[in-house]
Fold this sequence. Notes:
Layout: E1 7-10, E2 15-21, E3 31-37, E4 47-48, E5 53-60, E6 63-67, E7 70-74, E8 79-82, E9 88-92, E10 98-105, H1 110-122, H2 134-143, E11 149-150, H3 155-172, H4 178-182
Antiparallel strand pairs: 1-2, 2-3, 3-10, 4-11, 5-8, 5-10, 6-7, 6-9
Amino acid sequence: xxxxxxxxxxxxxxxxxxxxxxxxxxxxxxxxxxxxxxxxxxxxxxxxxxxxxxxxxxxxxxxxxxxxxxxxxxxxxxxxxxxxxxxxxxxxxxxxxxxxxxxxxxxxxxxxxxxxxxxxxxxxxxxxxxxxxxxxxxxxxxxxxxxxxxxxxxxxxxxxxxxxxxxxxxxxxxxxxxxxxxx
Length: 183
């Protein structure tokens, strides 16, 4: 379980975060963290959150966003909102580190997703785009489908594939939990 002040980093994507308000702190209403992204850094893949709003408040640097297919830059003082169900991705579009505050409403289990996803990066279990292999992606997809879904695969198809993959993932020991990644 994430705690206030806990920091995570993904060495491939250049992202790092420190939890400010966790699910436990807010009775599930909000997850808030300070976020930094090095020059050249990026989010691993375009995605959407089926029932959460994600809000980015930029404090320093220049962030590039693609939100619902439209591209834009955000600078210090700008806030960008991805409503529930909206495809989005973002990256460092400048030469300086980005500093932002990121919020999810409601919190759901996004902090656990970050613990697993960044943990896979820290363990060297991702490719050069920061994504883990197909079995880890399937385990993440099964565990966190309420929180995050990849934009590249239609959800009805992904749901069928993930359901079929369940027994194989369990048999091979792929569990998308912070403990499984650390162990």
